Amino acid sequence: MRSTDKTQKIIQAAEEIISEKGLSGSNISEIAKRAGVTDSLIYNYFKGKEDLVFSIPGVRMKEFLKNLLEHLQGIPDPVGKLSKVLWFHLYFFDNHPEYTRLLLLECRSNREFYRYEAYSLIRQYAGIIAAILEEGVNEGIFRGDANMRLVRDIIFGVIDWETLESLALKETVGTTQDLQDILNLLIPMIQIRTPSEDLEKSSRILLAAEKVFGEKGYSQATISEIARLANVAEATIYEYFKNKEDLLFSIPEKRFREHIASLEEIFEIKTPLKKLQRLIRDHFYLYLRERDFLKVFLLHIQLNRRFFVSHVYETFHRYVEIVADILEEGKKDGSIRAQVNTRVFKNFFLGAFSHMALRWVILEKEAETDKMREIAEVVTLLCRAVASDTKDQK
Questions:
Q1: HEC profile for 215-235?
Q2: Calpha distance 291→210 (Å, rounded)
Q3: Which one of 3, 155, 157, 196 has the fewest CB atoms closer than 10 angstroms to its CB?
Q4: What's the pTM?
Q5: How do residues 63-88 score in pLDDT, each as one tens digit?
Q6: Which domains does the chain have, with CATH numbers?
Q7: Which residues contact 36 (CB under 8 A, 6 or more apart)?
Q8: What is the number of alpha carbons within 13 Å of residue 181 lying toward its C-beta?
Q9: CA distance to 273, 299, 342, per residue, from 382 (Å)
Q10: If we measure between CA atoms, which residue out of 163, 185, 183 comes closest to residue 175?
Q11: Residue 267 DSSP label
Q12: Is 38 helix (H, G, I), strand (E, B) or coil?
């Protein structure tokens, strides 16, 4: 599409009318009338009303990106760049309310929009944010363990909702006034804190070890790599851990304690079978959220004969005994069959988890498996195995 005075008038008129009346409530004739052109001229540039609407963000995004890149010139640090991006995004939306309303309520809600050039420009903008976040990680300013793709989603999400509140709900006069409050939440989410504010050294060392062991394997990992990632001296690690093996086994001990604490609310559930369903589901979710730990546990802990005589096994045993407690409770109220061998069921549970998780994270590509569906199915199968009334476990 050529950028002429006429096309600009058409776009301006369409932006005003469709922002006010919506896509379904407007037509080409009234757009043409406001733009001072004929209906047929609009069809010379656009295939129809939808094509016209979806072309508007393409024009605006080119303007947006050009001005944004100018604003970013001369800002040396990632925090400053991220702040400027947020400010400019909010400022642009505040000063183009008709376009913003059209983009959020008419374009983004229509799946056809995502095939247009405008969406590729939005992706280009998302790439700018991703590059700033990556720069912050590379410079040691932002956390390397934060999922920056999710951070980027959070950034776009909060701007969307700030804007919707301002435009639709009239809860704020403009969104730029909330910039500092947004930054006060966003920056602590991703910024590396000074040691006095950060985790205790031992916790930092454990997290670093978990990451290095998960990526390189136990035998290939070195204490110096772990020390470097934890931002401590190599000698500091030996102040907390006897050797590399002691460090390895200390990782699951920390995680098992966290898992035990997270399962406390299970006991607020009244029926044993519901408790069992929740425990199995939470077990899968907890481990899948901690991918580095999952790899370490699957490959270097559970199949390590020294694990079963280590100090951490007592904590692991206490964690697994929660399953036994639930089964015994169910046997007493009749919801779980009395002849169920608790020890064997625990092996069913742990074995199913180990093989499924191993397949997911080691043997298959992530996209190949619907993990949520498989978790739901294994919960059903395991509970069906022990229930006295299997009709409730379909």
A1: HHCCCCCCHHHHHHHHCCCHH
A2: 9
A3: 196
A4: 0.56
A5: 999 999 999 998 989 999 999 999 99
A6: 5-190 (1.10.357.10), 194-241 (1.10.10.60), 244-393 (1.10.357.10)
A7: 9
A8: 8
A9: 10, 24, 12
A10: 163
A11: G
A12: coil
